[in-house]
Amino acid sequence: MQVALVQLASSTDSAANRELVETRLGGLDGAADLVLLPEATMHDFGDPQHDLASAAEPLDGPFVSLLAAQARRLGSVVVAGMFEQTDDLPFNTLVAVGPDGSLLATYRKIHLYDSFGYQESDRLRAGDIEPVTLKVGGTRVGLMTCYDLRFPELARAVVDAGAELVALPAAWVAGEHKLHHWRTLLTARAIENTVAFAAAAQGGRRYTGHSLVVDAWGSIVAEAGDDDDLLQADLDPADVARARDVNPSLANRRMRSAW
């Protein structure tokens, strides 16, 4: 499976972000099976007083329509983060759009970032507690978002739902220890679940950047820098099967999740 991770820094100007996405995806050649953009690509979080409800869009709004057009052009599955409009607080949502432009899946972030002095739940609502996966070619892909990475039970749930690759868009806020946590948690989730991770992060001054592709052995396949970047990697689902054969920790479990 060919994956492409587009690292960018979005702003609170949704129209400008659509132009940015169109430019960045326009530079791809269509070789990737899966194209991954960060959390909040549609519209940045802004400062804590910024009204995300007024910026939120429906699933048939201009942002998803743009992703659908690009997915059709590329012949790829495109996954990106947005704020989804509701009659109350919006969801922090990942949308997965298929090569025909159809909406394949939505994942509404379960674990809101009420940590490190920030309170995401003041402005957004949490999604239902349910793992979300989709097929990309012959590979089952699980969806997680940013802060979800700190909760190993969700990674285990998407793996129990069949995931061989976990796609994790993020806006991982920069700060002391944060890059170390990012790398460590991604490799830990990969190792303990014998699953590959593709993590597309926001770059720029506010966020950590360092989008990562990690294989099922926990080895870093590709890593971005701090600013705008593009990672491309070839992930072989057979390598996941080999890792699970050599290290059958999933099969050896004596405690299992409800999923």
Automatic annotation (TrEMBL):
Entry superkingdom: Bacteria
One of the record's GO molecular function terms: hydrolase activity
Record-linked CDD domains: nitrilase_3 (cd07581)
Protein's recorded name: Carbon-nitrogen hydrolase family protein
Similarity comment: Belongs to the carbon-nitrogen hydrolase superfamily. NIT1/NIT2 family.
Keywords: Hydrolase
InterPro entries, A to Z: C-N_Hydrolase (IPR003010), C-N_Hydrolase_sf (IPR036526), UPF0012_CS (IPR001110)
Domain annotation CN hydrolase: ranges: 1-237
Organism lineage: Bacteria, Bacillati, Actinomycetota, Actinomycetes, Propionibacteriales
Record-linked PANTHER family: DEAMINATED GLUTATHIONE AMIDASE (PTHR23088:SF27), NITRILASE-RELATED (PTHR23088)
